[in-house]
Write a structure and sequence with these properties.
about 675 residues; alpha+beta; Alkaline Phosphatase, subunit A; Nuclear Transport Factor 2, Chain: A; 7-stranded mixed beta sheet; 6-stranded antiparallel beta sheet; 17 helices; 24 strands; about 20% strand; globular; transmembrane helix; DUF229; Alkaline_phosphatase_core_sf
Length: about 675
C-alpha cells in the first residue's frame, strides 16, 4: 500500500510537472501576445498625442489661464445674479473657438476671474449715495414745452432761467428768472425760495432738460436700412470692473440683446483725450515703441491736435451727419474730452445736432449751491449720469423716424474708485429695460476709454490689477434682425483675439458706410482705406494680432510676456531711477514750467522688471518710481546695449494727483508737475 501510494504520488507529480510546463508555455505565449498588444496600443496613443499636441500648437492660441472658474455675476455689495443657460452655452462656444483657432497670433491672453481673491482687499464699497434722500420728489418739472410747479407750498416761490449756447465756443447766454409757463428752453435751471426770518432763502434747485427737435431736411437714408448707433463710454472702466460692478446690466445685455463681450481690448494711449482722438479721428497722437523695438510715431503732434481747431479734420461725427443721421454728444463733464489735459481747442463749432454741454456748464458754473447739490448724489439720490440718461431718452423719442447716432461719455462713475460703478448698476439696468425696443433694433456699443488708473501700488502689483490698468471694457450688440445671419459667430471669434480702439472705430465705420449695402451679411475681411483697424463684424486678417503688428504702444499691451524682477539690484535701480527722474525734470523744463513745478528726487524704486525682447541689441525695463514730494511715475525704458542710450516711453503718473498739477494750466498743463505753491 505504501509503495503503491508512492507510485501514485510519483505519477501525480509527473502529471503535475507536465501540466506545469504546458501552463508555463501557455503563459509565455500569453505574455508575448499581451506585450505585443500593449506596445501597439501605446504606440498608437503616443502618435495620437503627438498629433493633437502639434495640431494645437499650430492652430490654437497660447492662453494663460489664471483662474477660469467664473461664478455667478455679482459684486461684493450687490445681489447675486445667476448665469443663464445662454451664458453657459456661450462660454462653451468661446472655449471651443479658443482651442480650435486658425490664427497664430503669438499673443498670450489671460483669463481672469474678476472676483479673484487677490482683488478683495481693494474692493471698498462706495458709500456716496448711501445716506441720500431716496424719497425726495422734485418740486418742478419741464414736460412737453411747459415749465410748472408740481409741489406747491405757501410762502414758496419757484422760478426758472434758461441757459443757451449759440455755438460751441461762444459765451453762454443766461436769461432773467421767469415764472412757470410755456418755454422752448432745452436747459432750464429751476430754483425755489422760501421766506424766512432773515429774508428769502434758496431751498431747492434742479436742472431740467428737453429736446426741441431741429428743423432739418428729410434724411437721404432710410432708418430700416441704416440702424441707430448708440455708443456709451464709461471712463476708466476696466473689463473686469464692468463684470464686478454692473452684473445686472451686463446680464440683461447678454440675455436680451445677445451682446458679445470683447475681453481683450487694449487702450492705445494714457488718458481719455489721447484715446478719443484715435476713436473719432483714427489718428495716433501719443508716440511710443511697439513690442520688438519698432518706433511708433504720432500721426499728429500736440501742436496739430491741441493748438488748432479740429473742425476741418475728417471725423466720425461729421461722417454720421453727412450720411443723414441725427446726432447727439453727451459728455457729462464740463472739461470736455478733447479740450482737457492738456487744455486744447477741440471743436470750434457744434459737431452734433444736440449736445449735453450746457447742463455741465450750469452744474459747474452756477453760483447757486442748491443747483449744484441737485446732481451730487449726497443729499438727493441723483447724479449727473442719471441726467445724461434722461437726456438720451428725450433725444431718441424726439426723432423716432430718423436714424440716430449718439456718443455718451460718463466721466465720474469709475474714475476714482474700483467699486464706484456699483451704484449705477440699477440705473443702467432700468435705462436699458425701459428702452428695450429701441436698443433691440440698434447697434449698441458699451465701452471705455482706458483701464482703471486710480488704484494703489499694491493693487497694480497683483496680476489682475496690472491687467485691468490697460484693459478697457467693450461689449457690442447688433439689431435683432441681423443676429441670425452669422454676424454673432464672427464677433465671438474676434472676441478671442487682441483688439484696440482702432478696431472699434473700424466697426462703427463699417456699420455706417459698408455693411448696409449687404444688409449686414458681408463677413469677408475688409481693409478700410486710411484706417488702422479691422471691423469686429467681419473676419479679421490672418496676420498675427499682437503688439508687434497692431498699433498699440508696448506699455499698454495686454499680451502676457515673461519678465524678471530686478528690484534687488540696487545699483541698477539707482541708475535707471535717477535717469528716469532726470528725464521727467527735463520734460518739465521743456514745457517752461521749471519755476512753477518742483524738481523730483527719488525716494524708492517700487518696481524694476526686465522684459523679454526680440532684439539682442536692446534691453527693455519697466520701472515705477516714488518721489519725495510725493508722486508716483512709471514708464518703459529701452537701453541700447552698445551705446547705453536710454529711450523713454510715455510717462504715466499713478498717484491721485488731484490739483497738484493745476498751476501748469496757464502755460501747458501736464500731470508731471507737482506745483511749488497750491
Amino acid at each position: 500500500m505504501g509503495y503503491q501510494k508512492t507510485e501514485e504520488t510519483g505519477q501525480l507529480f509527473q502529471s503535475s510537472q507536465e501540466n506545469f510546463f504546458k501552463f508555463s508555455n501557455f503563459r509565455r505565449r500569453f505574455h508575448i501576445r499581451s506585450l505585443f498588444y500593449f506596445i501597439s496600443i501605446f504606440s498608437l496613443g503616443f502618435f495620437v498625442c503627438l498629433y493633437i499636441t502639434f495640431g494645437w500648437q499650430k492652430g490654437g492660441r497660447d492662453s494663460i489661464t489664471v483662474s477660469q472658474s467664473l461664478p455667478s455675476y455679482s459684486n461684493y455689495f450687490n445681489t447675486t445674479v445667476t448665469p443663464t443657460k445662454t451664458e453657459t452655452s456661450e462660454k462653451s462656444e468661446k472655449s471651443e473657438i479658443q482651442n480650435d483657432s486658425k490664427y497664430q497670433d503669438d499673443c498670450s491672453l489671460p483669463v481672469f476671474d474678476p472676483w479673484d481673491e487677490t482683488i478683495k482687499p481693494f474692493m471698498v464699497e462706495d458709500t456716496k449715495m448711501k445716506f441720500c434722500n431716496k424719497n425726495f420728489k422734485p418740486f418742478t418739472e419741464l414736460v412737453n414745452g411747459t415749465f410748472r410747479v408740481v409741489q406747491e407750498k405757501e410762502g414758496r416761490t419757484c422760478k426758472g432761467r434758461c441757459h443757451t449756447l449759440p455755438d460751441l465756443t461762444a459765451p453762454f447766454k443766461v436769461t432773467n428768472w421767469f415764472s412757470p409757463g410755456p418755454t422752448d428752453c432745452e436747459f432750464l435751471e429751476a430754483v425755489c425760495w422760501e421766506k424766512g426770518q432773515f429774508g428769502e432763502k434758496e431751498v431747492y434747485g434742479w436742472i431740467h432738460t428737453q429736446i426741441v427737435p431741429n428743423k432739418v431736411p428729410k434724411p437721404p437714408i432710410e432708418k430700416s436700412e441704416h440702424p441707430d448707433v448708440f455708443v456709451f463710454v464709461m471712463d476708466s472702466l476696466a473689463s473686469g470692473m464692468a463684470k464686478r460692478s454692473l452684473p445686472n446690466t451686463l446680464e440683461f445685455m447678454k440675455t436680451k440683446l445677445q451682446a458679445v463681450d470683447f475681453p481683450y481690448l487694449s487702450q492705445v494711449g494714457t488718458r481719455s483725450q489721447v484715446n478719443a482722438v484715435p476713436l473719432w479721428f483714427g489718428k495716433q497722437v501719443e508716440a511710443g515703441t511697439m513690442k520688438g523695438g519698432k518706433r511708433m510715431e504720432a500721426d499728429w503732434t500736440e501742436e496739430e491736435y491741441c493748438n488748432h481747431y479740429l473742425d476741418d479734420k475728417p471725423n466720425m461725427f461729421r461722417d454720421f451727419l453727412d450720411a443723414g443721421y441725427t446726432t447727439n454728444y453727451l459728455d457729462n463733464w464740463i472739461d470736455q474730452t478733447l479740450t482737457h489735459n492738456p487744455i486744447c481747442k477741440g471743436f470750434q463749432h457744434f459737431h452734433t445736432n444736440h449736445t449735453f454741454f450746457p447742463l455741465t456748464h450750469i452744474l459747474e458754473r452756477t453760483v447757486l449751491w442748491v443747483t449744484k447739490q441737485s446732481l451730487k448724489g449726497t443729499q438727493i439720490c441723483r447724479e449727473v449720469h442719471q441726467a445724461t440718461l434722461e437726456y438720451f431718452d428725450q433725444f431718441v423719442r424726439a426723432y423716432p423716424d430718423r436714424p440716430k447716432f449718439t456718443w455718451s461719455w460718463f466721466v465720474h462713475l469709475a474714475h476714482e474708485k474700483l467699486a464706484g460703478p456699483d451704484r449705477a448698476d440699477p440705473h443702467f439696468l432700468e435705462f436699458f429695460q425701459n428702452n428695450f425696443e429701441i436698443f433691440d433694433d440698434a447697434f449698441v456699443i458699451f465701452t471705455a476709454d482706458h483701464g482703471f488708473r486710480a488704484g494703489s501700488f499694491e493693487f497694480y502689483k497683483t496680476k489682475i490689477g496690472a491687467f485691468e490698468k490697460h484693459n478697457p471694457f467693450l461689449q457690442i450688440s447688433v439689431p435683432k434682425k441681423y443676429r441670425d445671419n452669422g454676424i454673432l459667430e464672427v464677433m465671438r471669434e474676434n472676441a478671442n483675439r487682441l483688439q484696440s480702439h482702432y478696431d472699434t472705430r473700424a466697426t462703427i465705420l463699417d456699420i455706417l458706410k459698408y455693411q448696409p449695402s449687404s444688409q449686414f451679411t458681408d463677413h469677408a475681411t475688409l481693409k478700410i482705406p486710411d484706417e488702422k483697424g479691422n471691423s469686429l463684424l467681419r473676419q479679421q486678417p490672418l496676420t498675427p494680432r499682437n503688439c508687434e503688428h497692431l498699433p498699440i504702444p508696448q506699455q499698454y499691451c495686454i499680451c502676457q510676456s515673461k519678465s524678471t524682477d530686478l528690484t534687488a539690484d540696487a545699483k541698477l535701480c539707482e541708475r535707471l531711477g535717477r535717469s528716469f527722474l532726470a528725464h521727467i525734470n527735463s520734460e518739465i523744463d521743456n514745457f517752461k514750467l521749471g519755476s512753477l513745478c518742483h524738481k523730483f528726487d527719488i525716494q524708492i524704486v517700487l518696481e524694476l522688471d526686465l522684459h523679454a525682447s526680440s532684439h539682442a541689441s536692446k534691453t527693455t525695463y519697466h520701472i515705477s518710481v516714488k518721489t519725495q514730494h510725493p508722486a508716483q511715475f512709471e514708464t518703459l525704458i529701452t537701453e541700447d546695449k552698445e551705446t547705453k542710450k536710454l529711450t523713454f516711453d510715455q510717462i504715466e503718473r499713478l498717484d491721485r494727483y488731484g490739483s497738484t498739477a493745476d498751476c501748469s494750466k496757464p502755460v501747458h498743463f501736464t500731470n508731471l508737475c507737482f506745483c511749488k505753491t497750491r
